[in-house]
Design brief:
Layout (H helix, E strand, L loop, with lengths): L1 H10 L3 E4 L6 E4 L27 H9 L2
Antiparallel strand pairs: 1-2
Bound molecules: zinc ion.
């Protein structure tokens, strides 16, 4: 099914790229994107979020439900 999925993404104009940091393959609509977009490969500012908006500490606090 990998081939079918590849054709589907290709038709949607996604670009298949390999992250230079974690070596994982990923899909992106932005042909200039270089890393997979996941931490720690991509600093927050590279994905368009203001620094401090999605701090790991904040996410952990949300998970705690307090
Ligand atoms: Zn990566």
């Amino acid at each position: 099914m990998e081939e079918l999925r590849t054709r589907l993404f290709d038709r949607m104009r996604f670009y298949r790229k390999q992250c230079p940091y974690c070596k994982h393959y990923f899909w992106t609509l932005n042909k200039d994107q270089e890393s997979c977009g996941d931490q720690p490969c991509t600093p927050y500012l590279f994905i368009g979020n203001p620094p401090g908006k999605f701090r790991p500490e904040s996410i952990r606090m949300l998970g705690r439900g307090s």
